[in-house]
Write a structure and sequence with these properties.
The protein is built from 6 helices and no strands. InterPro entries: ICMT_MeTrfase (IPR007269), PPMT_MeTrfase (IPR025770).
């Protein structure tokens, strides 16, 4: 975030027309705002749909109440919370018209989710076996380059 603030400040100072359109938000900022709303919406719908199955920590042991959620938003997106956070994160930089940080945030968050999904899906396959394999085969993550 420090880089984002630094980029915004430097570009506002050196290239003030890049950040504003005569005091109005430019179309790029509106795209960023739409990304933020979409990303936050996906994440919240995923949380509500999964209920107690949604956590911020990767489960390494299956609870008795743990179930594979593959209805609602999970019918279309395998990890809506991660996809939502990815879109939201990049959207914050698009809103600010921070081209360097837009790319930087996209790369850093992509790498984070690539590594996290590798671990999380390992445990999901252990917990749910063939049921998860079939679900993963038919439901994409929609995160670029992560099937």
């Amino acid at each position: 975030m420090s880089f984002a603030v630094l980029e915004y400040g430097l570009e506002s100072w050196l290239l003030p027309g890049m950040k504003t359109d005569n005091g109005r938000l430019g179309y790029i900022s509106w795209i960023g705002l739409a990304m933020i709303v979409l990303g936050e919406g996906l994440r919240k719908v995923g949380m509500v749909t999964a209920r107690s199955n949604f956590t911020h920590h990767i489960r390494t042991q299956k609870r008795e109440t743990h179930q594979l959620v593959c209805w609602g938003i999970y019918r279309y997106v395998r990890h809506p919370g991660y996809l939502g956070w990815y879109i939201w994160c990049v959207g914050t930089q698009v809103l600010l018209v921070n081209p360097v940080c837009s790319v930087g945030f996209a790369v850093v968050t992509w790498r984070f989710f690539r590594d996290r999904l590798h671990v999380e899906e390992y445990y999901l396959r252990r917990f749910f076996g063939a049921e998860y394999e079939a679900y993963a085969a038919r439901t994409p993550t929609w995160i670029p380059l992560i099937p």
